Amino acid sequence: HQIGVVVFGWNQGQRQEAQLGRTTQSFVQIPTAKLKKRVKQLCEYHGIKFVETEESYTSKTSFLDGDFLPTFGAKPEGWKPSGKRVNRGMFRTGKGLFINADLNGAANILRKVETQLGLVLVKVCRQVLTLATRFRIWETKTKKRSGTASAYDVASV
């Protein structure tokens, strides 16, 4: 898939500082530190660059509207994002367009490292942020003796 970089959005102390009411119990069960460590190992093994960045406000901010992305603890007084997450998996931009909420957050995480990595995100448009494409980057294709191709997991996350 010609993937050369994996960007991992991470907030230090995320688990301890989660105060989401009824959601907290299920939210903090996700072992993100363990996941991050494993993804980093797999990236090193496969020769893929691993970049970690803080991800504050990436889910609240609209990528398509080009909202300002503050860093944790440095949010300007009176700052308000133009878009809003309307339900699970759906984000409405300030212009009223509906896009996938996870893809919007991922695009905003890329914005945080755009300059550092020399990325050009101009071509990222609504079409790209509407329907997710799954890449199985840890799989390799091999041929069975019968001649049919199948995929075997190189490693599991």
Q: Can you give a write-up of this model?
A:
Helices cover 25% and strands 19% of the residues. The protein is of the alpha+beta class and 157 residues long. The chain has one domain (5-153). Strands 3-4-5 form a three-stranded antiparallel sheet. Strand 6 (139-143) and strand 7 form a beta hairpin. The radius of gyration is 18 Å and the shape is globular.
Major sheet: arrangement of strands: 3-4-5
**Number of spatially distinct domains:** 1
Largest sheet: 3 strands, antiparallel
Radius of gyration: 18 Å
Count of β-strands: 7
Apparent shape: globular
Spans with pLDDT under 50 lasting ≥5 residues? 147-157
Helical fraction equals 10-25%
Averaging pLDDT over every residue, what do you get?
A: 77
The structure class reads: alpha+beta
Strand proportion, as a percent range, falls in 15-25%
End-to-end separation: 18 Å
N-to-C series of helices and strands = EHHHEEEEHHEE
Number of helices: 5
Outline:
With 157 residues, the chain is of the alpha+beta class. The protein has one domain.
Label this structure with key terms.
157 residues, alpha+beta, 3-stranded antiparallel beta sheet, two-stranded parallel sheet, disordered C terminus
Helix-strand layout with pairing:
Layout (H helix, E strand, L loop, with lengths): L4 E5 L4 H4 L6 H4 L4 H15 L2 E5 L30 E4 L2 E3 L5 E3 H12 L1 H4 L21 E5 L5 E5 L4
Parallel strand pairs: 1-2
Antiparallel strand pairs: 3-4, 4-5, 6-7
